[in-house]
Amino acid sequence: MSNDDPGGPTRGRARFRPAPRNDWPDVPEAQWNDWRWQIKHRLASLADLESRMRLTASERAGILFSAHKLSLGITPHFFSLIEKDNLACPIRRQVIPVIDESRTDDAEMSDPVGEDSASPVPGLVHRYPDRVLLLVTDRCAAYCRYCTRSRLVSGAGGYDFHPDLEHALAYLRAHTEVRDVLLSGGDPLLLSDDKLDHLLGALRAIPHLEFLRIGSRIPIFLPQRITPALCAILRKHHPLWMSVHANHPREITTEVRDALGRLSDAGVPLGNQSVLLSGVNDSVEVMRELTHKLLLCRVRPYYLYQCDLIQGSRHLRTPISRGIEIIEGLRGHTSGYAIPQFVVDAPGGGGKVPINPEYIIYRDAERVVFRNFQGRVFEYPDPGKNGAPRALPEAAPVAGG
Ligand SMILES: *Cc1c(COP(=O)(O)O)cnc(C)c1O
Asked: For the whole model, what pTM was predicted?
């Protein structure tokens, strides 16, 4: 599994492999491919995991701790991608808790990007002028250990999550400045076909809402959910876009590729949001392989997130400089379409801030001097446009206090 074909005449097709399924040899194909079977057979307890793999002491303790914070949950599909003998397996690190989750450092928060304080109606976050985030459920197909919303998803943390969809719809009807609604959660694709159709229809009935999108990891965790019936519903509500969430190239199996293909064929433009995670995707090589596989699946890498300051995430976070190095290692070296925007979601709540490598070396009233991806230096004569020699823009007072 780990030595994906790096290229050659069969580049592309050969990079995709089916989930190995070795852990469920006797399950008939039809059941394995049924998303309800996958949900019903999720690994959700210490006993479930121990019956199928050897765990470390740290993982055992982490799983017991997770019951009070963010539940353990892994679909058989995703579990089958774990290399059971590899403690550093990048799939394993994303979904199996370790004891480090119980350690909180001073900078960490339960609501790291300040969503609760930007929420006029339960389940609706209105931070930006023209668009809102609508949290439609608190459940996911599987639980990412670095979840930004671990305070409210999975039901383990004691958060009283009651999205008020009727009030949210009333809010949206009244707020004509909103033109873009992003459905998230939890994972919106866990709603039944009928509920999703009804909700999208209710949003579509609001004339000023132009643009709808869904944020979902289900195409990766549970590709079986992307049925032709679901795709037929989604295509009724265009323009509807989707952001999926893959972090490592091994997640893009043939089943995932085919699910993404069904969404694309239904006219849903696809983006990917990755979270930069230590020991998972914190290298140029891994991110390049991931973004290339995404392009082959017609998915445009959208954001690369600095991991939020979620409680117990220290072991998964990287320095911001790593993200800059990764973008620098991609820009110019590969297709522009393969390069996501690296962002930090401002701690405490200021929204996403783009963080880029610095290419400008100098600028004054006559010219701008910059470097290219190879480090070669160029000059663009730009009289009268640049004012005084460049200084850092005056900083606003530090937010949050
Ligand atoms: C990320 C986010 C959005 C969408 O941001 P885009 O940059 O337009 O993708 C909207 N609202 C909230 C609260 C968000 O966190």
From this structure: 0.93
